[in-house]
Amino acid sequence: METTEEILARFAEVRAHTERLAAPLSPEDQTVQSMPDVSPTKWHRAHVTWFFETFLLAEHEPGFAPFQDRYWFLFNSYYEGVGPRYTRSMRGAISRPGAHDVADYRADVDARVTDLVDRVDGGTLEKLRPTIELGFHHEQQHQELLLMDIKHVLSLNPLQPVYAGAPRLPGTPDRLGWVGFDGGLVEIGATGEGFHFDNELPRHQQWLQPYRLADRLVTNGEWLDFMTDGGYRRHDLWLSDGWGRVQAERWDSPFYWHEEDGVWFEHTLHGTHPVDPALPVTHVSHYEADAYATWAGHRLPTEAEWEHAAVTQSATEENVADLDAFHPRAAGPATGRLRQLLGDCWEWTSSAYLPYPGFHPAPGAVGEYNGKFMSSQMVLRGGSALTPAGHTRAGYRNFFPPGARWPMTGVRLASGD
């Protein structure tokens, strides 16, 4: 059980890490919204502050008053139970408050949360602990979103600015291997130990046929083979909705790729460089992942298969919180075990994002966190090079619409034999 001092140290570190990620960006950078799914950097900074103000201070601070009345409207994301909110697709129009004003907001709430936690008795602290812990993980989610979003923003700038970091030396491609699992009657979901979101409950049994998973993620070089073989031109490989997106949006490569004089380049947070065939392919949609798996003669894993494999192999974090390149790295030498499970790229599964049997959202407005999105989404597992350290686990259920390409998403193949 964490002491007051340990909780406050974690609070200070989580909050400081958000500011470190925003530090390379100018106030102008932090205001841009490049598409409806992207939020400006300063909005992320303000929203995670609003979360602590709304769900911790408003409920427990004596004599509570919001830092600024209109911030509750501007920085509420989707919590209907809290009140009205500003249109998501128009967040880039919020030129005021500015980035420096958001810093003042953060400093005020940080001081008040610190004071609240520092002075409450042990019993009250235990009541506050779940909300504080949720606030930590909520902010970590937005730290990753901040990086994914600014990557999209900078990708549209014709000057091709670098956010931070530098490329690694080119890797060496290795052959794809397979790891088999017996399956059987297995248990899936959070055990109740350590932090977990409500969508990871309840723990339940599920039957799995024997299966195999590829020992690493699909690489850029393998994806180039898919492209050369007409992968984006063959309707027979695609789900119907996916083929419609290919045609409507003229997909011919992963999201941040472009071709110049026969050479493919990839935009990253550390700049735009020739595609490295040894690195994992990333920024592909579920539709693309499924089409590639069909082309390769395999399939995507179910989320239950993925979790069972990760638990069986006691997966640990690999390339997360990459502050050197902000990008996936090559898998490295084969080990006979699964590589790149918790890190590098979020991995698409074939599973729709639906409630586990017996699922009930948390009471109150905070219960809107996950359950209300259990429609038209696909589950991803693992983590990415942009995921904060300590934020991944085998049971984590991330989710995005099947056409999403701006998240750092990759592909691991599965087979039924």
UniProtKB/TrEMBL annotation:
Keywords: Iron, Oxidoreductase
Domain Sulfatase-modifying factor enzyme-like: from-to ranges: 178-329, 338-414
Pfam families linked: DinB_2 (PF12867), FGE-sulfatase (PF03781)
Lineage top rank: taxon: Bacteria
Occurrences of domain DinB-like (ranges): 11-144
Pathway where this protein functions: Amino-acid biosynthesis; ergothioneine biosynthesis
Alphabetical list of SUPFAM superfamilies matching this protein: C-type lectin-like
InterPro entries in the record: CTDL_fold, DinB-like, EgtB, Sulfatase_Mod_Factor_Kinase, SUMF_dom, SUMF_sf
Keyword hit for Oxidoreductase: yes
Name assigned to this protein: Ergothioneine biosynthesis protein EgtB
Taxonomic source organism: Aeromicrobium halocynthiae
